[in-house]
C-alpha cells in the first residue's frame, strides 16, 4: 500500500472548478489525537502535501479516515470572530478579506457540501477552525513516495535473510517498515542494504562450502 502519498476524497465539481491546484497554506491538520502544520494542495482526486503524508500511518488505521483542517492555527476562534466585526451577509467573501484566507480555503467554505449557507460570523469561524474532510483511500502505490507493508520482520533473521528461504536476503522497502520523507526512507534503504550485503558475504565465507562445479573438481 502507498505511504507518503496523497489521499482521495470526493470534491463537488463546482469546488474543483474553483480550486483545483490551489494551495492551502499555513494550516494545521488534525487526525485523531495528532496534528501537523504545513501546506496542502487541492487536486483533482483529493489532497496532497507533507502534513497528510506524515499522518498516513494514522489515517490508514482508521475505519473511516477523516481529517480536520484549521486554516488559522495561530488565531483563536474568539479573535477571528472579533475580526469579522458586524458582518451580516456575504460571509465567505468577508471572511476571505477580513481573515486573510487564501482562495483555496474560500472555495472550500463556498462549495463543500452540507456546510452553508452561513448565517453568522461564529458559524463560519467554527468551520475555519475545524473543517472536516472525509477521505476515501490513499493514492495508488505507483504514485506514492514509499510503500507500507512488505516482508514481516518476524520472517527475517538478524542478517535480514529469509528464514524460510536460506540464502535469500531482503532490504529497503521490501521489508515492512515505514518512515517520513526527508532522507529517512533513503537512509533506511541504504542501512538495510548494507547490512544484508554484509550478512550475505559473511554467509558465503563462513557457511558450508558449496559442491564445486564439475570442471573445478578435477
Ligand atoms: C518521487 C519520489 C520522491 C522521493 N523523495 C524522497 C526523499 O526526499 N527522501 C527520502 O528519504 N526518500 C524519498 N523517496 C523514497 C526513496 O526513493 C525510496 O524509499 C527508496 O528509493 C526505496 O529503495 P528500494 O531500493 O527499497 O526500492 P527502489 O528504489 O524502488 O528499487 C527497487 C529496484 O528493483 C527493481 N526491480 C523491481 N522488480 C524487479 C525484478 N523483478 N527484477 C529485477 N529488478 C526489479 C526496480 O526497477 C528498482 O530499480 C522518494 C520516492 C519517490 C518516488
Report how far the terminal alpha carbons are from each other.
Answer: 52 Å
- What is the architecture of the largest domain at the second tier of CATH? Beta Barrel
Sketch the topology as an H/E string, one letter per element.
Answer: EEHEEEHHEHHHHEEH
Helix content: 25-40%
Beta strand %: 15-25%
The major β-sheet equals:
6 strands, antiparallel
Number of helices: 8
CATH homology superfamily of the largest domain: Translation factors
CATH secondary-structure class of the largest domain: Mainly Beta
- Over all CA atoms, what is the radius of gyration? 25 Å
Q: And the CATH topology of the largest domain?
A: Elongation Factor Tu (Ef-tu), domain 3
Mean pLDDT, all residues: 92
Number of DSSP E strands = 8
Low-confidence stretches: none
Give the cofactors and ligands.
Answer: flavin-adenine dinucleotide
Present the secondary structure layout.
Layout: E1 2-3, E2 7-8, H1 13-19, E3 23-31, E4 34-42, E5 46-48, H2 50-54, H3 56-60, E6 66-70, H4 77-84, H5 91-98, H6 103-111, H7 121-129, E7 131-134, E8 146-147, H8 184-206
Antiparallel strand pairs: 1-8, 2-5, 3-4, 3-6, 4-5, 6-7
Helix pairs in contact: 1-6, 4-7, 5-6
Q: Can you give a write-up of this model?
A:
The protein has 2 domains: 2-134, Elongation Factor Tu (Ef-tu), domain 3 (Beta Barrel), CATH 2.40.30; 149-206, no CATH class. The chain is 34% helix and 17% strand. Helix 4 (77-84) packs across helix 7 and helix 5 packs antiparallel against helix 6 (103-111). The chain has 218 residues and is of the alpha+beta class. The chain is elongated, with a radius of gyration of 25 Å. A 6-stranded antiparallel sheet has the order 2-5-4-3-6-7. Flavin-adenine dinucleotide (FAD) binds next to helix 8.
Amino acid at each position: 500500500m502507498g505511504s507518503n502519498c496523497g489521499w482521495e476524497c470526493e470534491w463537488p465539481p463546482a469546488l474543483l472548478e474553483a480550486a483545483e491546484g490551489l494551495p492551502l497554506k499555513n494550516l494545521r491538520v488534525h487526525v485523531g489525537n495528532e496534528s501537523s502544520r504545513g501546506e496542502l494542495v487541492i487536486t483533482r482526486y483529493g489532497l496532497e502535501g507533507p502534513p497528510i503524508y506524515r499522518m498516513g500511518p494514522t489515517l490508514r488505521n482508521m475505519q473511516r479516515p477523516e481529517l480536520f483542517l484549521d486554516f488559522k492555527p495561530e488565531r483563536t476562534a474568539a479573535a477571528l470572530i472579533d475580526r469579522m466585526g458586524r458582518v451580516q451577509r456575504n460571509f465567505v467573501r468577508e471572511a476571505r478579506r477580513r481573515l486573510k484566507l487564501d482562495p483555496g480555503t474560500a472555495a472550500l467554505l463556498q462549495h463543500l457540501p452540507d456546510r452553508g449557507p452561513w448565517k453568522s460570523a461564529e458559524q463560519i469561524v467554527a468551520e475555519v477552525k475545524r473543517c472536516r474532510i472525509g477521505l476515501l483511500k490513499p493514492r495508488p502505490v505507483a504514485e506514492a513516495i514509499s510503500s507500507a507493508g512488505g516482508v514481516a520482520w518476524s520472517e527475517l533473521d538478524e542478517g535480514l535473510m529469509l528464514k524460510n528461504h536460506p540464502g535469500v536476503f531482503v532490504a529497503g522497502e521490501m521489508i515492512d517498515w515505514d518512515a517520513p520523507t526527508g532522507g529517512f526512507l533513503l537512509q533506511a534503504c541504504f542501512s538495510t542494504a548494507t547490512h544484508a550485503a554484509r550478512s550475505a558475504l559473511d554467509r558465503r565465507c563462513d557457511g558450508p562450502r558449496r559442491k564445486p562445479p564439475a570442471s573445478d573438481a578435477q
